[in-house]
Amino acid sequence: MNQAEAETESQNEWCDEIKAFDYTKLRIKGLVDAGLTKIPRIFVHPQLDSLACEDSQFSIPIIDLQGVNTDAIPRTKLIEKIQDACETRGFFHIINHGIPKSDLEEMLAAIRKFHEQDAEVKKEFYTRDLTKKVLFLSNFDLFQTPIANWWDTLALVMDSIPSEPQSLPAICSEGILKASA
Q: Within 10 A of 116 (CB to CB), how many other CB atoms are there?
């Protein structure tokens, strides 16, 4: 077998692994709960094995929403800070957002309850249809990226109060609705 054939075979095996993982609808926690003892190849990032953090002064950008609704000038600067944080770090920490800490804790507890449910219950919410209001999946781009990410996602698309609260997972709907009110 020449190198091109070997690469094609390896790519086909990888695609088969991705399809098999997606077909189970178990997601990452489901693999762990099933007794997984070795991380599947689709989640291994070999190029990251040798990376070291060269920036010992690394910090998370802070976005302060204080006064964002009262003054147009800080709002413009805020937008610039968010854009910079997204482009340079990929994430940021928001402060003075007006959401009580107790609501945030309740929301996290509700989402944790969802993830701790039996796999069969969570499968009801599994979808790759990004137009749905409730999605349970591991990687939005599972079939487009060369390496899968090791996380599960419960995505809830809503404004303040969901238009269809009955579509929310029952185990966490109360906490979600209270936090979004």
A: 11
